[in-house]
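Would you mind giving me a polypeptide sequence along with per-residue C-alpha coordinates?
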Amino acid sequence: MVTGEMKATMTVEEVSKMLGISLRLAYEEFCTGHLPARKIGRKWIISRQQITEWLNSGPALPITQREKRGNN
Protein backbone atom coordinates (compact mmCIF):
# COMPACT_ATOMS: atom_id res chain seq x y z
CA MET A 1 0.00 0.00 0.00
CA VAL A 2 1.21 3.50 -0.84
CA THR A 3 1.75 5.61 2.26
CA GLY A 4 1.72 9.39 2.37
CA GLU A 5 -0.09 9.70 -0.95
CA MET A 6 -3.26 8.47 -2.65
CA LYS A 7 -3.27 5.21 -4.56
CA ALA A 8 -3.66 5.57 -8.33
CA THR A 9 -6.47 3.00 -8.38
CA MET A 10 -9.55 2.30 -6.31
CA THR A 11 -11.46 -0.85 -5.46
CA VAL A 12 -15.11 -1.31 -6.34
CA GLU A 13 -15.85 -1.09 -2.63
CA GLU A 14 -14.07 2.29 -2.36
CA VAL A 15 -15.94 3.64 -5.38
CA SER A 16 -19.31 2.48 -4.06
CA LYS A 17 -18.65 4.18 -0.72
CA MET A 18 -17.40 7.34 -2.43
CA LEU A 19 -20.55 7.53 -4.59
CA GLY A 20 -22.90 6.43 -1.82
CA ILE A 21 -24.27 3.49 -3.81
CA SER A 22 -24.51 -0.21 -3.09
CA LEU A 23 -21.70 -2.54 -4.06
CA ARG A 24 -24.12 -4.41 -6.34
CA LEU A 25 -25.08 -1.21 -8.17
CA ALA A 26 -21.42 -0.22 -8.54
CA TYR A 27 -20.66 -3.57 -10.21
CA GLU A 28 -23.68 -3.16 -12.50
CA GLU A 29 -22.54 0.31 -13.52
CA PHE A 30 -19.02 -0.93 -14.27
CA CYS A 31 -20.32 -3.88 -16.28
CA THR A 32 -22.58 -1.66 -18.41
CA GLY A 33 -19.84 0.92 -18.99
CA HIS A 34 -21.62 3.73 -17.16
CA LEU A 35 -18.63 4.13 -14.84
CA PRO A 36 -15.03 4.16 -16.11
CA ALA A 37 -13.20 0.94 -15.24
CA ARG A 38 -11.39 -1.99 -16.79
CA LYS A 39 -11.74 -5.64 -15.98
CA ILE A 40 -8.61 -7.74 -15.85
CA GLY A 41 -9.47 -11.37 -15.26
CA ARG A 42 -12.00 -11.30 -12.42
CA LYS A 43 -10.77 -8.00 -10.94
CA TRP A 44 -11.97 -4.48 -11.76
CA ILE A 45 -9.29 -1.79 -12.07
CA ILE A 46 -10.63 1.71 -11.45
CA SER A 47 -8.43 4.74 -12.02
CA ARG A 48 -8.88 7.35 -9.29
CA GLN A 49 -8.16 10.05 -11.90
CA GLN A 50 -10.81 8.69 -14.32
CA ILE A 51 -13.48 8.48 -11.60
CA THR A 52 -12.66 12.04 -10.50
CA GLU A 53 -12.81 13.31 -14.09
CA TRP A 54 -16.10 11.44 -14.64
CA LEU A 55 -17.58 13.05 -11.53
CA ASN A 56 -16.45 16.51 -12.65
CA SER A 57 -17.43 16.06 -16.31
CA GLY A 58 -20.63 18.05 -16.03
CA PRO A 59 -24.27 17.65 -15.15
CA ALA A 60 -25.60 14.14 -15.12
CA LEU A 61 -28.64 12.41 -13.75
CA PRO A 62 -27.98 10.45 -10.58
CA ILE A 63 -28.01 6.71 -11.21
CA THR A 64 -31.32 6.28 -9.38
CA GLN A 65 -33.03 8.92 -11.55
CA ARG A 66 -31.58 7.42 -14.73
CA GLU A 67 -32.93 4.00 -13.71
CA LYS A 68 -36.36 5.45 -12.95
CA ARG A 69 -36.44 7.27 -16.29
CA GLY A 70 -35.54 4.04 -18.11
CA ASN A 71 -38.36 2.16 -16.41
CA ASN A 72 -41.13 4.56 -17.55
Remarks:
- The first strand starts at residue 9 and ends at 10.
- Helices lie at 12-19, 23-32, 48-55, 63-70.
- Residues 23-32 form the longest helix (10 residues).
